[in-house]
Amino acid sequence: MAKKKEKPAEEGSPAWMATFSDLMNLLLCFFVLLFASSTQDAEKIMRIVNSFNPQSYSILESGAVSLVEGQIISGGVTQLPGIESFLEYIGVSVEAKGNNDDIAASGADKGEEDKDTSAEEPDDVVGTYPEETKPEIESEQKELSDEALKEQMDEKGLEQSQEMYDEISEVSESYDIDDRIVMDFNSQYVSLDLNGALLFDAGQADIRSDAKVFMQRIAAILEKYRDSIIEIEGHTDNIPISSGKYESNRYLSTARANKVLEYVEEHADLIDANMKAAGYGEFRPVASNATEEGRAKNRRVTIKIYNQLATDMMQAQ
Would you say 287 and 294 are in contact if contact means Cβ atoms under 8 Å apart? Predict the structure, then answer.
């Protein structure tokens, strides 16, 4: 029986190989796309990690902005009331810049283009965290920064209070009442101590008629600082009150503070929202109550005129 002739093999690759090659090409493209979409931006990831820094000052951390020295504002939230007024006063502008650590880590600075840090950063940076000692160092730096800022604020406050003190001293001399006022100042306010015996009769809160000209001149001084917060405090000695009109020295001191406030508001153009009155009775003495001289010093009305920096901070609270 004759054998069948075998068909000659077709030239080139078999048909199944072409289909297989197409499948491999598609799979290669698919995995390339997967890899490309999973490539991590080290710089952005580090910024995200830094934004969760527990040592940050802000409630919503997104990197801190360096003001004067150290990190004071973070995430657009300031923790010190009235700090904008102080920064504006000393000539520091507040801008939303990135965290200093982020800028140094990314190699990017003001106006410079971001550099590729993929060669320097490890591929897997999601699980990368700062060293154990870094939070302690940052905490110390921020404490030093807070102290430096407070020192600068105290210095500026003292400058303003010194100017107010000199101005009030000059005016009181021109009014010929400087011998009836005991003045002092600190980084927040200038205080004027008025002798209670000159203003009130014993156990009474009404201003004496012979003290009204003196109080009108005090009102004229206060009018020059109407934009500042002004506190009027009443104080007494520790001798129990014998008058039946007031229950205690605290009630008497409060009534005297209110009477002074009402009188200066009647005789000067003051802002009522900036005026405060309080009575402390015998609980804030400036001298010993063991002697008559000390008790006389404690029977007083204190007027505190806050400087502009302290006023701005108090109003911002």
Answer: yes
Helical segments of 175-281, H only: 196-199, 212-223, 249-267
In sequence order, what are the residues at sequence separation of 6 or more whose Cβ sits closer than 8 angstroms to the Cβ of residue 235?
A: 196, 253, 279, 280, 281, 282, 284, 285, 286, 298, 299, 300, 301, 302
- Global pTM reads 0.60
Q: Which two tokens stand for residue 262?
A: 């009402």
Whole-Å CA distances, 130 to 49, 53, 133: 9, 9, 8
> Which bin fits 12, alpha (ψ -120 to 50), beta or left (φ > 0)?
left
Residue 63 CB neighbour total at 10 angstroms: 21
CA distance 310 to 83: 10
Identify the structural domains of the chain with CATH numbers, from first to last. Answer: 42-109 (no CATH), 160-316 (3.30.1330.60)
DSSP element (H, E) containing 48: helix 42-51
pLDDT digits (tens, 9 = 90+) for 16-74: 788 888 889 899 988 888 877 766 666 766 666 666 655 544 444 444 444 444 444 44
